[in-house]
Amino acid sequence: MRASNQLLGLLLLWLTGTKCDIQMTQSPASLSASLGDSVTITCQASQNIGSWLAWYQQKTGTSPKLLIYNAKSLAEGVPSRFSGTGSGTQFTLKISSLKMWQPIIVYSVITYLAQ
Prior knowledge:
The structure is a single chain. By secondary structure, the protein is mainly beta. The chain has one helix at residues 2-15; strands at residues 24-27, 39-45, 53-59, 65-69, 73-74, 82-87, 90-95, 104-110. The strands form two sheets. Strands 1-2-7-6 form a four-stranded antiparallel β-sheet, with no helix packed on it. It has a four-stranded antiparallel β-sheet with strand order 5-4-3-8, with helices on one face. The chain is globular, with a radius of gyration of 14 Å. The two termini are 26 Å apart.
């Protein structure tokens, strides 16, 4: 978890700089679902980013948790009901069989930036 937090901090630092010209659009912006439902969240990049995309989950009052890296690789300890697909500019996160009652935030992050 420490490495992913450091990575997130580094990315946020870069994203606030003057070179930020890649826009990420995630949809839907919000959704409601019931326990046991499956949900799909999409993310579109304004430029080709290959497979350099990660998905994070943040529950209320906790640090972000890495779910998926390199667009489709499941992070250690993450249940297989989470899956990621896509490359280039189109990415999808699917969560099967929801098991949480509390609100969560799910977001996508570019994980590599060429010089």
